[in-house]
Write a structure and sequence with these properties.
The structure is a single chain. This protein is an alpha/beta fold and about 400 residues long. About 30% of the residues lie in helices and about 20% in strands. It has 10 helices and 19 strands.
């Protein structure tokens, strides 16, 4: 049995204003080609298919076309993540072709998708949608009006969901041995986050111990964007593209799984296409415009210029040299040495505070012209306030 595990496509997302849909489409073409070449028995998509609950029309069209093409090659199982609207993603799930399974409701978590390989042996795929504790903790507490409400935590609702999964798995295993996979969208203890995941804390806590998932052969996780294993048989595939500069050193990939009749699950990371590298460039402007920048002209860049005083024409010169620069900022090396932030009280002279800010940004005291401009602006603001 061969499976592909992927997640966190975030269709419709941009990177510092750059539309990524074409790059996302290129990854999805790669995924379809990979599924065909490896003759996989199923593709598992563990949440955050879209970047927001109401995605742009172009993202919806791309997903629709992709699922149709994937379903022509193999079985597809999709679950919503914390960015998706489970209702919208799951709309029409009952009308979809047999090869496509969108599992978006709590009621179906103990009913696995049965995937059969070429030899006919089944793998049970339990597809858990993202479980928001505030939404599902009553439904997962158990049947009956008098059922207790679960604790307000991700651990409590996932533990309850896995209790249902293990119950169904035990019944099926009693008849004949069977392999099992759980899909889930959560922040599991030991995972390394990046800057681009949305905070899912409830009651101040977002972590779930990996032990919650005990009893299955493999856990296909979504939510964290770095590909990583957090425990034996518990892995994040990561996002297929970098969605923040904190991900510039990630090796984006798709997980190719192989399950034999028994024994550990074999995991192989298949590299995803890289549309454009992300990189940080830091230093004096002339150095960056010189040899230091030669290898970065085609990269998406976050550039920090460290000259003591902001160079004239800095932004235009950087934009001409680096056409794909996404962030350009000046942080004076002299200003950085002056120390941390200082509290500003109501008794301070606003002009004095503004002059200190100019010195912090530029690394040099405000010039007479800058002080005159600040005073003129301040007088206009105070005059406008008096007239209202």
């Amino acid at each position: 049995m061969r499976l592909l595990h992927t997640s966190d496509w975030h269709l419709g997302r941009s990177l510092h204003g750059v539309d990524l849909l074409d790059h996302q489409a290129a990854y999805l073409d790669h995924l379809i080609d990979l599924a065909r070449a490896e003759r996989v028995d199923a593709v598992l998509v563990a949440g955050d298919v879209y970047d927001r609950a109401v995605p742009p029309v172009e993202a919806v069209s791309l997903l629709s076309e992709t699922l149709v093409r994937l379903a022509e090659v193999t079985t597809v199982v999709v679950t919503p993540g914390n960015h998706d609207s489970a209702t919208r993603l799951g709309f029409g799930a009952g009308l979809m072709r047999p090869e496509l399974h969108v599992r978006a409701t709590v009621g179906g978590i103990a009913a696995p998708v049965v995937v059969r390989g070429a030899d006919g042996d089944p793998v049970l795929v339990y597809a858990l949608p993202y479980l928001d504790p505030d939404v599902v903790r009553r439904e997962l507490a158990g049947p009956g009006d008098d059922a207790a409400v679960l604790a307000r935590s991700h651990e409590a609702v996932l533990a309850a969901a896995m209790g249902r999964v293990r119950g169904d798995l035990a019944d099926r295993s009693a008849r004949s041995p069977v392999r099992s996979v759980v899909m889930a969208h959560a922040f599991v203890v030991g995972g390394e986050p990046s800057e681009s995941e949305r905070d899912i804390r409830v009651g101040g806590v977002d972590h779930v111990p990996a032990g919650v998932f005990a009893g299955v052969d493999y856990v296909a996780l979504g939510h964290l964007h770095g590909p990583q294993r957090v425990a034996d048989g518990v892995r994040y595939s990561g996002s297929p593209l970098a969605y923040s500069f904190s991900e510039q050193h990630h090796r984006k990939s798709t997980v190719l799984l192989e399950l034999a009749g028994s024994g550990p699950v074999r995991e192989e990371l298949v590299a995803a296409p890289v549309p454009r590298r992300l990189a940080d460039l830091t230093g004096p402007l002339e150095e960056l415009l010189g040899r230091a920048g030669d290898s970065h002209r085609d990269d998406w860049l976050r550039i920090t210029v460290t000259d003591a005083v902001r160079p004239p024409g800095m932004y235009a010169r950087l934009a001409e040299r680096f056409p794909h620069a996404l962030v350009m900022q000046h942080r004076s090396s002299a200003g950085a040495a002056t120390g941390g932030a200082v509290a500003v009280g109501a008794a301070r002279d606003p002009l004095e505070v503004a002059e200190e800010f100019v010195e912090h940004v530029t690394g040099a005291p405000a010039t007479p012209g800058e002080r005159a401009a600040l005073r003129h602006a301040w007088e206009r603001v105070t005059a406008a306030e008096r007239s209202t």
